[in-house]
UniProtKB/TrEMBL annotation:
Gene3D superfamilies: P-loop containing nucleotide triphosphate hydrolases (3.40.50.300). Transmembrane segments: none annotated. This is Sulfotransferase. It comes from Crocosphaera chwakensis CCY0110. One of its GO terms (molecular function) is N-acetylglucosamine 6-O-sulfotransferase activity. The lineage of its organism: Bacteria, Bacillati, Cyanobacteriota, Cyanophyceae, Oscillatoriophycideae.
Amino acid sequence: MLSHHPRLAWSSEFEYVVDKITDNGDFPDLNQYYEWLETLLIFQDVSFLTIDPELDYIQLVNSFLWQWKNHYRKELVGATVHRHFDRLLKIWPDANFIYLIRDARDVARSCIGMGWSGNVWKGLDRWLEAEYLWDQLKSQLSTDRYIEITYENLITDPVTTLTKICHFLTLEYDQNMLNYAGDTTYSKPDPKLIKQWRHKLSDYEIRLVESRASALLKDRGYELSGLPPLDVTPFMEKQINLQDWWFRIQFRINRYGLSLVLADYVARKLNIKPWQKQTQKQLIDIQMQYLK
């Protein structure tokens, strides 16, 4: 939606600028960073991005944004970062933030479909991490530097929600923002996409999520299901973690094949760089088939 504004370029997956920054704020060794980017699908998939070895780390990642902006010939540029977004201030101390909130029960369910987790208990990890991190980051920002919107409002009333975002960015809403379905694989906003947890999660799964996130759900404005609370014992949690581990292994084998999964594991374990690059290239080719 944002990238279809005539004045705004947008990188939809920009985690590679923060993933290698340490919690202490140290930037990565540049040569190691270059090697890592060579094996990173989301970076390699963007044909126009180039690496200038004359730049330091801050200059380099800033150049990536400028390349997005110049490639699409837009006046402004932004990016989506799902994790470690607090580290952005190490690079852009004056950055502004648009924070998208979604119902934890739908997020947890979605993580299973992506193969990131094997159950809603573990799928909730990403949501909790992001929410806690946002609370910390928000406390460092003045109110004019961020806007919070909900996924549910974006889907049910996209024009109003996008107008708010545009005004935050000192832009006017443009109807082209909703024309993305014509040249992407994403569908137009569909209200059926919200509250899917009500009919796609079992009562047990709903109770699992709410046993960990009930307070935050209410704080974010979401109603609880009304189901009785669930007390997750240490033994239950061990079973949940084991099931999650096994599911993710099976998902990976089903998608990539056992031989490639084993080759990738051994190549990384033995740190054989040429072999790693070879297996990563094969993994990327398969991943490309599932990208939207």
